[in-house]
Amino acid sequence: MASGGEGAGARAGAGGDLYGLLKAFEGRAAVVAGVGKDPVNEPMIRHWCEAMGDTGPAYSGPGAIAPATMLQVWTMGGLSGHAGRSAAYDELLALLDGAGYTSVVATDCEQEYARDLRPGDRITFDAVIESVSERKTTKLGTGYFVTTRMDVRAEGEPAGTHRFRILKYAPTARGRRNGGKRPRPVVNRDNAGFWEGVAGHRLLIQRCGGCGALRFPWLPGCGDCGSPRWDTVEASGAGTVFSYVVMHHPAFPAFDPPYAVGLIELAEGVRIVGNVVGVPYDKVRIGMRVQVEFLRVDGEWELPVFRVAEDGGGGEGGGG
Ligand SMILES: [Zn+2]
After folding, report:
1. pLDDT (0 to 100) of residue 82
2. How far is the CA of 189 from the centre of ligand 1 (A)?
3. Which class does domain 16-171 fall in?
4. Which residue of 11, 106, 179, 291 pairs with 253 in a disulfide if CB–CB is 3.0 to 4.6 A?
């Protein structure tokens, strides 16, 4: 790594040269003269408000404005991407990859709003690599925070700023060591009872103490009536495949693709995600009858999975 490393600005110690190279990206363009693919428009506002459950009166009818938090929406490139993207951001990420900081996680974003956006406003934007942090150690691993700032304009006027931060990091030794094992479930005080049930080979569903609604996954309060009171009912374990996906890619170290992941509708009416076993991945069909069983994982803990019933049932007939 050449360049004037002898100067007072050179950083001593491991990573010092890399940090200098990374800092040189600050201020470089990430997107130049980007153009929103659609002007601000009522259908996208309506879809957003429906998805968010936002019934604010400002977002519909004559004189409607877009929710301010939609700022980034108007800049998104969709599946085909954007033409105005510069090479600098990709170069920065490649530099970090090459130095072993191969993992990435989005950490946070901040927005500032300068102007209401209204249907018909045409959006343009530029983005710049605003800052690269010093090397930091987090629970995920050691790496660098990269902050990108996007300046959004509507009809040429400043509309707002969107800052987006990622951590590019080298996974911790603990993470790598776990590479061949299944990820363990996150057990917390809200779902501990579920996993205690699984350990005793019981599939437990929460039942609201206010309105009696059953719910899964486990949550601290009822989505129907808001009550924090609940008890449990034990599921029979019988269900049907409500939907499924077959995982081909990406390959996680603990899994052997392709494999089927089912969304199982239990006889009690709630749905749960789990592996479908007992038939090849390409024989899983919607409507198949399944029964829970408990799979011992890595000799250490257990997981509910769903075995297709003898007669299969439903779908196109379970497997020839
Ligand atoms: Zn309730």
Report:
1. 73
2. 20
3. alpha beta
4. 179
